[in-house]
């Protein structure tokens, strides 16, 4: 028995024509290769921007505006010359605040309105710096004061009246714990979206609160109780870290609602590329590029660093502004997520239903 004749397979495409360029492009966009290719370029750009943003902000810190208190009691003529010499040495970056007494000047320093106090007396000039306000700023002021004093042959005494803790001599520990809270905060939200997609909005918010509270506690416990790097006001620091993690997680959730799978782009941009370098944690804001110094206080990383910094080193002088910033970002993010929750890629309403069994 002979095999039946087989007709040749029809060529690809309608009536045997090859696919058009538009059809090829449509097929490519619907394949997994398209988002993978886009990610290759996005990750390359993100790597360059990440390195560039941190280098721009931190590699060569330069003074722009350093608030300094000057006690205006009667003083020798050399006092004015010393202040003028300091301003010249720091490229005219001193922002002079005049106070009648040292007590008033110290109050301004405790409120973080100034970074140092200059006083002139019969035996020379006294410069009180605050290492807790920024180690780099305090070092810069101290070195400049010694140099100017030598040029003017004016005795200079430098004291650090608000020193950093021994376990954190460069003042970076608070930046690192805030950075951990920011990154783990939005990474946690990403993991919820991947591994617990079926969570409904209230459940998603509740689990974000849960991992924020537990994560903030663990960060504070490791840094304080285990490593002993910084003596934290534990409950206050824990709550700041938890608030930061929750805000960061909800920021990603908001962008995930608005932008779907590309939500990582604006989250990374706001929190990491812009927020962390401008937070003032690694380099104090007087040494940051002026634009970053102003923007950073309005972003969650900067608000977290400011709140944590005041809680640890300026107890009794806590300000409400950092909490308002964190709260505003959290409220806006939760509101956007809730109002447009039907657009969020998760939720049980979006999950495929099991086929009904035939009766």
What does this structure look like?
Helices cover 56% and strands 8% of the residues. By secondary structure, the chain is an alpha/beta fold. The C terminus is likely disordered. It is elongated. The chain has a five-stranded mixed sheet, with helices on both faces. Helix 3 links the parallel strand 1 and strand 2. The two termini are 47 Å apart. Helix 6 crosses helix 11, helix 8 crosses helix 9 and helix 11 packs antiparallel against helix 12. It is built from twelve helices and five strands.
Radius of gyration: 29 Å
Summarize the biggest pleated sheet. 5 strands, mixed
What's the number of helices?
12
Mean pLDDT across residues: 86
Report the uncertain regions.
352-359
Strand content: 5-15%
* Overall body shape: elongated
Helix content: 55-70%
Structural class of the helix and strand makeup?
alpha/beta
Topology summary:
Blueprint: H1 21-29, H2 33-58, E1 66-71, H3 78-89, E2 94-99, H4 102-110, E3 116-121, E4 124-129, H5 135-152, E5 156-160, H6 173-195, H7 201-226, H8 234-259, H9 264-275, H10 290-295, H11 300-313, H12 321-339
Parallel strand pairs: 1-2, 1-3, 4-5
Antiparallel strand pairs: 3-4
Helix pairs in contact: 3-5, 6-7, 6-8, 6-11, 7-8, 8-9, 8-11, 8-12, 11-12
């Amino acid at each position: 028995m002979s095999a039946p004749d087989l007709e040749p397979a029809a060529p690809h495409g309608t009536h045997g024509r090859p696919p058009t360029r538009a059809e090829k492009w449509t097929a490519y966009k619907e394949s997994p290769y398209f988002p993978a290719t886009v990610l290759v370029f996005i990750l390359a750009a993100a790597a360059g921007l990440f390195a560039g943003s941190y280098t721009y902000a931190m590699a060569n810190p330069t003074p722009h505006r350093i608030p300094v208190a000057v006690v205006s009691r009667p003083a020798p003529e050399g006092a004015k010359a010393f202040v003028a010499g300091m301003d010249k040495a720091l490229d005219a970056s001193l922002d002079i605040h005049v106070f009648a007494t040292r007590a008033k000047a110290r109050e301004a320093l405790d409120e973080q309105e100034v970074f140092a106090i200059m006083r002139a007396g019969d035996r020379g000039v006294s410069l009180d710096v605050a290492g807790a306000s920024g180690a780099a700023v305090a070092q810069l002021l101290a070195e400049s004061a010694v140099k100017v004093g030598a040029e003017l042959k004016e005795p200079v005494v430098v004291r650090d009246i608000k020193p950093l803790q021994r376990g954190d001599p460069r003042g970076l520990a608070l930046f690192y714990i805030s950075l951990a809270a920011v990154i783990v905060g939005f990474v946690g939200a990403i993991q919820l979206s991947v591994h617990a997609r079926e969570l409904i909005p209230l459940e998603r918010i509740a689990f974000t609160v849960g991992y924020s509270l537990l994560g903030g506690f663990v960060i504070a416990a490791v840094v304080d109780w285990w490593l002993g790097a910084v003596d934290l006001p534990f409950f206050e620091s824990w709550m700041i870290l938890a608030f930061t993690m929750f805000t960061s997680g909800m920021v990603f959730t908001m962008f995930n609602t608005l932008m779907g799978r590309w939500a990582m782009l604006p989250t990374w941009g706001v929190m990491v590329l812009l927020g962390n370098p401008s937070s003032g944690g690694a380099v104090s804001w007087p040494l940051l590029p002026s634009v970053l110094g102003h923007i950073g206080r309005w972003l969650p990383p900067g608000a977290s660093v400011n709140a944590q910094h005041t809680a640890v080193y300026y107890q009794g002088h806590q300000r409400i502004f950092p909490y308002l910033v964190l709260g505003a970002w959290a409220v806006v993010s939760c509101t956007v997520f809730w109002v447009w929750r039907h657009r969020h890629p998760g939720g049980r309403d979006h999950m495929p239903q099991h086929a009904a069994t035939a009766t």
